[in-house]
Amino acid sequence: MSAAFDTVNRETLLKILEDIVNKDEHRIIRFLLSNTIIDTKIIGATEEKPFFSNVGTPKRDSLSPVLFTIYLEHALKEDIDIEEVGKVLEKYNLQVNVDKTEFTNLSRGETNWQTTIKVGTLIGDQEDIERRKQLSSAALVKLKNVWLKGEKITKNTKLKLYKALVKSVLTYNCGTWALTQSQKERLNAFHRKQLKKVLNIKYPVKITNSSLYNKCNERPLSIFILESRWRLFGHILRRDSRIPPNQAMSGYFVTEGSKFKGRPLTTLPVVLNRYLSRIINSNLQPEIYSTAERRVDQAYSEDSRSSRGVPVGALRCERP
To answer: For residue 130, is it within any domain?
Structure first.
């Protein structure tokens, strides 16, 4: 989108919000969007020339992204034909940025989609893993002087820096990866190699894998990825059944249609199914939702001690 936040029609937005928020919230939002003043700075001018704006939503606040998402979602509901979207958005005073627009065709027989970046992640798992390795290696090299300072910086400080600045890059969105056994082993080896660099362990010094993990208070990266995958899965199950991830899961398990011949690809549903045999046909067993819900109950009981709890009823997932 071009200048997305600056082109929102406020009256249309407020009309859309009438069916979403209550009267008090609607009144507050109307108040926040009214009487907005824009200051302009003209080169060579001695005075600023402010003017009132009646379009767009204010930037750099937490409310504007939510309002824009609601506005855009309502506009896209009118047409699902990608070629007609531009015309529909024009009615909402939104402009499609042609230079930023990408068309991705998802097909089993093609591989171009695997190198498409969405939300900072390549769609193809192997492609994304290799990219994460490169980015984390670059982050590790930037801190080379920190790893080589020996006793001047404690081991615990180095490991904290590694987890915050390097490991976080390596494992970004790792909960979406569907890994084969060989991919797990290569990732674990890559992770251990980075840990050795952090502790400045070089040849001919030898250390066993278990000793390295104990020394760094770490575990194999494949275990971290497994936990991230189930954490993401549980988070989705606790959400409303109408959100896109839950609808995609329901559609995936529909038995209609022809099946592809040959060995099934290692995809996220296949990996989850290996660990969770309760997935049957198009429905998930109620026990899965109960397990996800129990985690909410536990989190609520822990947070309530510090008076930061959220009513569990507001977080409970809907049964399909």
So the answer is: yes
Taking the whole predicted model, whether its pTM rises above 0.85 is answered as: no
On whether both 212 and 268 belong to a single domain, the answer is: no
| Of 144-153, 171-180, 216-225, 274-283, minimum mean pLDDT range | 274-283
Report the C-alpha gap between 177 and 171 in whole angstroms.
10
pLDDT score recorded for residue 81: 60
Give 67-105 pLDDT, tens digit per residue.
888 888 887 776 566 666 767 777 777 777 667 777 777
In this structure, are 126 and 197 located in the same domain? yes
Predicted pLDDT of residue 313: 35
Mean pLDDT for 198-223 is 93
Q: Point out which residues pair with 268 in neighbouring strands.
A: none
Q: pLDDT digit string (tens) for 291-314?
A: 666 665 554 454 444 333 333 333
Distance CA(85)–CA(81), nearest Å, equals 6
Residues 6 or more apart whose CB falls under 8 angstroms from that of 63 comprise 29, 32, 57
Q: Does residue 151 form part of some domain?
A: yes
* Domain span including residue 142: 112-216
For residue 212, give the amino acid letter: L
209 and 261 part of one domain: no
Bridge partners, residue 37, by sequence: 52
Mean pLDDT lowest among 43-52, 175-184, 222-231: 43-52
Extract the runs of DSSP E, i.e. beta strands, from the chain: 36-38, 51-53, 117-118, 121-122, 279-280, 283-284
Last residue of a domain, one of 65, 100, 135: 100
Q: How many domains does the chain have?
A: 3
Can you read off the two tokens belonging to residue 202?
A: 């070089």
> Among the three residues 155, 181, 216, which one is the final residue of a domain in this structure?
216
What does the block give as tokens for 250? 């329901």
Same domain, 119 and 78: no
Q: Give the Cα separation of 38 and 35 in Å (integer).
A: 10
Residue 238 corresponds to which tokens in the numbers above? 């606790």
